Amino acid sequence: MAGECRKHPFLLPVEEVAEDLKTNLDKGLSSAQVTEFQAKYPPNELDVGSGIAWYTIFIRQLCNAMILVLFFAMGLSFGVGDFIEGGVLAAVIILNVSIGFFQEYGAEKKMDALRSLSAPSATVLRDGKTSVISNSEVVPGDIIYLKMGDTVPADMRLFDAMNLNCEEASLTGEAIAVEKITSNDIVVPGTEKPATTADEVGIADRINMVYATTVVQKGRGRGIVVATGMQTEVGKIAAASSKKQRKPGRSMNWKKYGPAQPVKGAGRRVYDFFGKFLGLTEGTPLQIKLAKLAYFLFFCALLLAVVVFSVNRWRLPIPNEVLIYAISTGIAIIPESLVAVLTISMVVATTVMRKANVVVRDLSALEALGGVTNICSDKTGTLTQGAMIVKKVWLPPNNIYTVRDSKTAGQSNNPNDPTMGSITVSKAGAPAAEDQPRDYDQERSTQAIKFDVPDDKGAPKPLKPAEEDAELTPELRLFLLSAALCNLATVRYDEDEEKWKTTGEPTEIALQVLTHRFDRGKKFLEGQGWKQVAEFPFDSSIKRMTVVYNVPAGNDAELPTENSLVFTKGAVERVLDLCTTVGTGEAKEPMTEALKANILDQMTEFASLGQRVLAVAYRPYDGVYHTPAAPTEKPEGGGKDEDPVRTMVEQDLTLLGLVGIYDPPRRETTPAIYECAQAGIRVHMLTGDHPETARAIAREVGIIPHNMGVFPADVAESMVYKATDFDKLSEAEIDALPELPLVIARCSPETKTKMIEALRRRDAFMAMTGDGVNDAPSLSRADVGIAMGSGSDVAKSAAKIVLTDDKFNSIVAAIREGRRMFENIQKFILHLLTSNVGEVILLIAGLGFQDASGFSVFPISPLEILWINMVTSSFPAFGLGREKASREVMRKPPHDKSRGVFTNQILVDMLVYGTLMGTCTLMTFVIIVYGRYGGELGVDCNTKFNDSCVPVYRARAAVFAELTWLILISAWEFKSIRRSLFRLNPDDESSFPLFKDLMNNKFLFWSVLIGALSVFPTVYIPVLNTKWGLVVGMTIVFLFGMEAWKWTKRTLNILDDHKVVKGAWSQGEEGSSSNGRKFGKSMSFSSLRSWRSKDRTDTRSRSQQNPNSTQLPTTA
Q1: Which of 411, 495, 785, 807 could serve as 799's disulfide partner, Cβ 3.0–4.6 Å?
Q2: What is the mean pLDDT of the chain?
Q3: Where is this region: Disordered (predicted)?
């Protein structure tokens, strides 16, 4: 045990465990104790080894295809006696491996740090205050709070458990969740004898303990940490069994799998070993694709060597000059700096995302973000602020309580202050003017349809109904009693900080704030003697929560004490199904279908105002509650998976009222949704709220239009679905919908999974958000699972990305950064491969320049090629990797995930620019050698200088200088693959914005400038002569050629990624706020017909779209 206890903690009373560990059950450890224990005990982490070992990274760098080519070239150079070139190649290998090693090693360390940020967390009590800390900071003696979905941070002795059940299959193999207790009345299994030693009871039977890494399946509790890190039970197992598990099929056991298995197993192990180090079987999709590119280029290098040998007639033995020429072609085709540039780009992208509150747990998600076509988002806390406030309460038969003048979330520093505002009461059926929805259809003219009417030009507003200040009536008292006790949140005033503080879920906090307005909070009531005896926690499958309390004598509600009371709250439809009566006192009446319809109408009225509506009910239990045995026959109405005891308790309820809770949208949500629409991304809202609440919020943030009546009936109907209706549809019926729903209300985890499959059948690439335990399946099945930072540890573990601030615009920021990284990778790959193509064309054409001895003459020397590839190209490529996102990055549709970075445009541009580069440099060599010197190629000019080599060396110097400048100029040109270098930003109104645009990326600017100036000390310069004039002239020709090709692409609209073509309506609105969209333009009926026709096109597969017009994704 990490903590020193006199016996094993499960054998001791809680008080003795707390005494031994020097902790306080009410206040926890003090700050001084935490500091002492952190120095005394190691961090609460399992020692499962560090990340990738440095030597593994080093060997991976050595086994890269590009390095293999250089090794091959170096060996040949030393073999033919060219020690200078061999030494330079050795230096290049050392430099390239060093850069790659340190960058990848640094990236691994940074990724480890980022992963630790999303590690499971724990809610701890220290110095009398609760806070959330990383699991690694937990120490023995800490008081930990547990709730459903939490991962237990350490081994703990429980002292408070309410329906606490833990899933311990990973530790004990027990498939059924274990119900926990707090007493130390543990007996030896199979006997009635109380246990006295730890050896008598296995860990599975120590039911007053919870263990590290297990998951709370339901309920809540508190416990004292008794063991951390490797001293926990799971830590002991990890220490005893640290052997790595092999992949299936790798066994060499011939007795078990047959005589051929040793050969198969050995072969697969060898394949795994080489595939891992060569990067072909492990890594992200982009890394694997680039590794395959490297080996393809390696094959091309070997093929080019064969071409060189063939042109020189395979002379045996092969002359050194021919070998060196073959080496040069191999060097020319390999972009040696590609891996290092890619690694740096990944690190920069993850760092930028971390600053934007996005933690990337899996690099594959970083690449996948650029291809997202649909986002399925939660509402509460993501699209909205998650800081809820009660706005309306309905009590039967027709009383409406309204919270007035309270500061809604976003307008006050503390929206949970119960002293703010006032509460009025009125009769149902006459809503106040400020809450009455306006009929925009009646306010529109017949000349044009406008979505918004200015507030000062609408129809006269109705008069307010008579309202009175609310008083605490018996009906309201009982309603508040149920709302306060069926609640896990706390609201308290901190005297030291002089402000109100809360803990718990936002919905429950809002209810507690309401009860505190009448001084009827949970703490006050429990202080009056109300004692909780049972809890049935909220379950997403049945959408309700129930508690049972014993009634104290002398309570101010004058309730009898001989019966316990059952209090229930939850989704209106689910609670109504359990109610047999409505109201209390004289207003009490039996539940009828007509009354139920009226209640649902009242719920719809609240929901149409964007409020989340809950029902509150109660009933007197038959006597004082004791935990009953499970009934032999399931009570009527119980679902097949429901707890029979719970079903028995939750029956014959009395409805006390409805409560409307408002969660205002975040101000940044609507512009973010608009940006998604601009980028060809459809946003879907999957929420547990009522359909009318979901519809109102979705309309407010711009997911659906304000007025659905102007759209065709089948399209309007498919925009908003109840989960129950959507779940009933077969796959064929879902696929036949004109559009997939933009909003699904009353959504369950199973509905999310069904939505994922429906999107996938429409060729979508979706991101799915979630925060609960039940969201884990949908998060893991989505292409990009996104967990909320405030969500459960299980959800975070299943997701590839974690949002630390839970905001929707952080998702959009992550997609923007993913697209920026994708674009920049395309740019520097195009930059590097263009120069490789140009060099290869130059060298292959140079095979025709043969001197008097019959050997081909280098148009450019091997050392010059190495200098260009390693020095000239590398730094501009790094600069391109640091380019800011282009203005069009979120105005293009998602990239094709099957093609990746190698789109048709990139491949064609590479060939066009490479051919242009190779032609210009080749013409320079020809003009100098044949135009000025009459074709004099000298003798033995590949190995040494003599007087006959002056023309060749002058031509090589010119080609080297020109190729350097062309590569550097192309780096500037590749700042935009389509726009002219002289006007990269079309919104810039200045007459000549070139220098301003170039200075936007200072690293790239100085890389190009310094690289261009480095040519002069490298090449002998007597005066500005014909050679340099030709170099400058060919550089201008190359620049003109690149600009001409870009102009051709723009003019003919070829090889374009295409901007998103929007229909007559789109999601979100640019620059709008959470107050709702403001449409400045009118909308004609003809445009509706146009939208309808486009809508039909949008539902087709993306592969069938017109290549000259990109529609919105097919999945909307």
Answers
A1: 785
A2: 79
A3: 404-424, 1066-1116
